[in-house]
Amino acid sequence: MKTIRLTTAQALIKFLVAQRIMIDGKEEKLFPGVLAIFGHGNVTSLGVALDEERKNIRTWRGQNEQGMALAAVGFAKAKRRQQIMVASSSIGPGALNMVTAAGVAYVDRLPVLFLAGDTFVHRIPDPVLQQGENFNDPSITVNDAFKPVVRYWDRIITPAQLLHSLPHAISTMLDPATCGPAFIGLPQDVQAESFDYPEVFFEKVIHTIARPRADKTELTNAIEVLKNAKRPLIIAGGGVHYSRAEKELAAFATAHNIPVVETVAGKASLLASHALNAGPIGVTGCTSANALAAQSDVVVALGTRLQDFTTGSWTIFTNEKTVFIGVNTARFDAVKHRSLPVVGDVRETIAEFDAHLGKWRSDDVWSKLAQKETAGYHTYIDGIANKNAASLATYAQVVGVVDRAAQPNDYVLTAAGGFPGELNNGWRAKSLDSFDCEYGFSCMGYELSGAWGAKMAMPDREVISFVGDGSYMMMNSDIYSSVLYGHKLIVIVCDNGGYAVINRLQVNQGGVPFNNQIADSGVTNLVYVDFAKHAESMGAIAENVESIDDLEAAFMRARKSDRTHVIVIKTSPNDWTEGGSFWEVGVPTTSHRQEVLKAGETMREGKKQQRIGW
Questions:
Q1: Which spans in 385-477 are helix H?
Q2: Do residues 191 and 322 both lie within one domain?
Q3: Containing structural domain, residue 267
Q4: What is the distance between the alpha carbons of residues 381 and 383, in angstroms, rounded to a whole number?
Q5: What residues does 207 pair with on adjacent strands?
Q6: 258 and 123 in a common domain
Q7: With bands split at pLDDT 50, 70 and 90, how would you rate the model's confidence at 611?
């Protein structure tokens, strides 16, 4: 067998370069780039290897390890899990900075390859700079912190282990049932060690993503239930996007006259204008979707984890006899809450359902009710999105500006805080795959870094990021990244004086405003940030606007800008889109405040609607 002598780091990068994937009939790089911040744990070996392969794999310089890894997550989401970015850091704090982003990828089922430097296997110079020593187990380093938030974890302690580890990491990330991040720890001495690798290890491999078909018995059981449904409902989750089943979903819903509601991850699975799109479901959902959920007798859950924000903490499905059919590549998700499992690819399962259902359709009375309810939802959104010059702009009005001005190719992105509810309701998709709200892990800071990654993935689309002042303060350095690398974003910053949506939760559950809004945080010198000047200092075009009319004009200017354009507007901290549903949170059962005790009673009353006994 022919061999080639390489360091561990060189072999790793050479192997990644050789991995390809078929996307829409075209061969592409499986790993198109590496996001990296170098330090003593990765610069001297992995950095050299990346430099040697710079013509074959692009290295992007990050500003913050968490931010660059979140960009890798945003890239994976925009690519619908068909390509994978690498995030690399040094040892210690650099590695730990990536753990939060790994958590996002883990919860959202998105592939990212994390490569972190590690301490010396031979331990002679221990403790080394940035090493956290474990008194009881010297094999433990801070990189063990990744174990709870990745699907695959390994530490390479001899060069030969790459031959086993790398194929397994890739297999895990590409399998729809196990998709998520993978982590490989690279001790400093092992990165630099040489080994005679078989040349065949570096031959080009063209990957495809499997589309597992459902078991015949599971299909039969599901079809029998669905054929007897009087009020069926489809929940479109993120799995619809990852299966690239949007067109098939639309055709299936139309053929069988079944209303569709969308989770946060599944939003833009159908056009908002589709006759059977009944809107977003759950806590950040709308009245139409939740009303249909309450009346449904069979729910087909397509590619969804059935998170509490989707189910209203399991209170919106008030018909105790409602049967759930769980269509998912992961059996773990397919069997949730006593669902009839159909373990398989969403697109292929829809096709099988369609063939078995034949000409069966649900009653027109049900679909007409869905359309009536949905019309009321759109009327409500149109009303609250209207201009109102007499007061501070609301989030709904800000979203309304972009909703009205949106072009079919626009891609809207946001994350935690007030925007998930506002955009989930107020952004009416004019094109498929036009929305990304990181709400699985609800990670503040994703809004800007994730947008940078999305723009990497889609350079020809306008990426529009909505971010509150709180998230902006947490992580904003990738505005600079986007300017440096020519990844133009439109960023809309809504400044409502702090963590206003959590202040709302605090007050609604009987508390007093405390430590959320800047003004309620015991500050001795109340100073507000000039976000436009801050963004401008990082090379972006930036402006403050005073009104919704001004925002409309600024948004048009931003479209024409040649680099990232940041628009800042003061918004109301107290006006929010209503609708939604019950959400269970922990409210004290003992308090000196009557408001807290009353909120607890309301919470316990709401819990009576929960479906339990699973």
A1: 395-405, 419-426, 446-457, 469-474
A2: no
A3: 216-376
A4: 5
A5: 21
A6: no
A7: confident
CATH for 484:
3.40.50.970
Whether residues 183 and 225 fall in one domain: no
Statement to judge: residues 91 and 33 lie in one domain: yes
**Residue-wise pLDDT tens digits, 56-88:** 999 999 999 999 999 999 999 999 999 999 999
Would you state the structure tokens that stand for residue 457, as one six-digit string? 């993935």
Task: Give the single-character DSSP code of 212.
Answer: P
**Mean pLDDT across 173-189:** 98
Q: For all residues of the chain together, what is the average pLDDT?
A: 97
Burial environment of residue 27 by CB neighbours within 10 A (0 to 12, 13 to 18, 19 or more): exposed
Please state at what angle helix 346-357 crosses helix 246-256, rounded to 10 degrees: 20
pLDDT tens digits, one per residue of 484-497: 999 999 999 999 99
The reply to whether 114 and 182 lie within a common domain is: yes
Place of tokens 């430099």: 51
**Is 598 contained in some domain?**
no
Q: Which residues contact 177 (CB under 8 A, 6 or more apart)?
A: 212, 329, 330, 331, 343
Calculate helix-pair angle for 65-78, 446-457, nearest 10 degrees: 50
Q: Looking at the 3D structure of the chain, how many domains does it have?
A: 3
Distance CA 371, CA 355 (A): 26
Domain finish residue from 348, 376, 404: 376
Taking the C-alpha atoms of residue 563 and residue 491, their distance in angstroms, rounded to an integer, is 11
Residue 168 scores a pLDDT above 90: yes
CATH number for the domain harbouring residue 348: 3.40.50.1220
CB of 259 closer than 8 Å to CB of 296:
no
Whether residue 161 contacts residue 155, with contact meaning beta carbons closer than 8 Å, is answered with no
Residue tagged 């929940």 (tokens): 235
* DSSP reduced 3-state for 244: coil
Task: Evaluate whether 173 touches 102 at the Cβ level (below 8 Å).
Answer: no
Query: Residue 390: is its pLDDT beyond 80?
Result: no
Query: How many residues comprise the chain?
Result: 614
Query: Are 559 and 402 a contacting pair, CB within 8 Å?
Result: no
Only one residue has tokens 């409502």, namely 496
Same domain, 303 and 220: yes
What are the Cα distances from residue 332, in Å, to 107, 240, 305, 339, 450?
Answer: 13, 17, 9, 11, 27
The 10s digit of each residue's pLDDT in 338-376 is 999 999 999 999 999 999 999 999 999 999 999 999 999
